Amino acid sequence: MFPHEVWNKKKGSSGDFIINNFNKQEELPMHAVIPYYNLNAEQKKGIISANQKLYKKPPKKKRHLYSTIYKLSEEPGYIEVDLVEHNGGNSKGEFIYTLCGVDVKTYWVFLRPLKNKARVWTIEALDDIINSSPFTVYHIHSDNGSEFINIHLLEYCRERGIRFTRSREHASNGNPHVENRNMVVVRRYVGYARYDTEKELKVLKELYYYIELRHNFFIPTMRLITKEKVGKKYKRVYETKTPYQRIIEDPSVPELIKEALMEFKKKLDIVKINKTIIKLYNQLEKTHRKKEVNP
Hints:
Blueprint: E1 7-9, E2 17-19, H1 30-33, H2 41-54, E3 78-85, E4 97-103, E5 109-114, H3 119-132, E6 139-142, H4 151-159, E7 163-166, H5 176-190, H6 198-217, E8 221-230, E9 233-241, H7 243-249, H8 255-266, H9 270-293
Parallel strand pairs: 3-6, 6-7
Antiparallel strand pairs: 1-2, 3-4, 4-5, 8-9
Helix pairs in contact: 6-9
C-alpha cells in the first residue's frame, strides 16, 4: 500500500494530512508528505508509473454473447427476431406479445403470438419457427431484451449449432429488417389495442397464419442489392420479389423443399386468404370489444 493511501485528513485544517503507520517522516517519499495536487508534473508522472507497475488492471470478462453489426446475408437462415407489445398503452400486468422473425436474405416472415414474454414461451415460439422454416436456420440475431438475452436461450442455440448474436448497445437501427416488418405485418393488421385473454390469443394464432401466407407467397418486398457513392449522393439498386421467389431461385435451398413449396403454392388462393384475414380481424375486434364491456 502506498503511504498516500493511508492519509487521514486532520480535523479542523485544510490541506494538511497526518501520516499513519510511519514513524519517521524523512523516510517517506515526497508525495507522502505533500498532497498530490501540490506536486509538479514530473512527480505526478513518477507516482502514476509506480502505481502501474504495482497494480495491474483486472482482465476483461469474456462475453458469452457477441454483438454484431448487420452484414448482407449470402444464403437463407440468418433470422432477425423481435417482440411487439400489445399493451394498449399500459404496460402494467400481463398482456400478449408477438414474436416477429424475418430472414434477411429472402424476407420470409414468421409470426408467433406469446401469452407473455416469459422465456418458456419465447423458446417455444423460436423452436416452432426453426422447425417450420423452409430453410435451415443457422443464425439468430436479437435486440438486448431480457426475453432473448438469457442463458436458457443461449444454451438452446448452442445445442442446435445455431449462432446467437445481439445488437450493439445504445445503437439505433440494430435490427433494421425485423423493425420494418413489425409495422408492416403486425401493427397494420392488429393495431395498438391491448390483447391479454386466451380468446384473443387463439384468434391471433389463426390470423398470423394467413398473414404469413399472404406476405411470404404473394406480396413482393424491396431488397437492397448494391449501394455505391456517386459524387455526393448514393446510388442504390433494389430487387423486388416475393420471399417465395427468392427461395425458389436460391441455389442453397434443396430441390425437395422447392418442389414442396411449389406444390403448396398451387393450392393457395390470394382472394380467399384476404377474405379470411378480414374475417379474423373482425373477430379479433369483436372479442376485444366484448372484453371492454364485460371485463
